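Re-run with default settings, no changes from the original entry. Doing this only to confirm the output is reproducible before filing.
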Amino acid sequence: MQTPIDIPTSWPPQLSDGLAALGLDLAPDRQQLLLAFLGLLAHWNRAFNLTAVRDPAVMVRRQLLDSLAILPWVVEGPVLDVGSGGGLPGIPLAIARPGLAFTLLDSNGKKVRFLRQVVGELELRNVEVVQERIERLDRAAHYRHIVSRAFASLSDLTVASQGLLAPGGDWLAMKGADPSEEIAALPAGLIAEIHPLRVPGEPAARHLVIVRTR
């Protein structure tokens, strides 16, 4: 059954202006899919508690633009979104990169049900949804990028998923404040670089940490 999607009139200009500020050029059909996803997220969030962000005035920047801020680093597939939850950042990235294969991984049944609903309703053919714990996913050396947004510490993320990373691949971990302490706690043999992110309209500090094997 199709979910009724309510798109506030403020969202389309917020998205187009934000994409321009990020230097991203997405076709109109991609932008429509992004807004439809956000509408589904807002609708299902009332019942499933998918995200703490409930104010429509900030959802475009907090959910879509924040996720898309790492798009320049997502250049090859397949891509694994660990602890995808409400589909962030995986679904916005998959919409913007339709030529790459994405796996959205979460162990929570309600969240997985939502993700599958989104993939079906939006016909996202480059996205699969898997309900499993990261430690039990059996895809050795498969993923070019492993992305996460507020999933776990860098150390826990890399230890749990290192066997899934393809040779030459990397972790793309989205963090808030200065993640230097987490980087210092990384296991031996891993190196990291920090990229400050500028999310249009968002005053909070955001960083991308890229982790690779030596």
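The chain has a mean pLDDT of 93. DSSP finds seven helices and seven strands in the chain.
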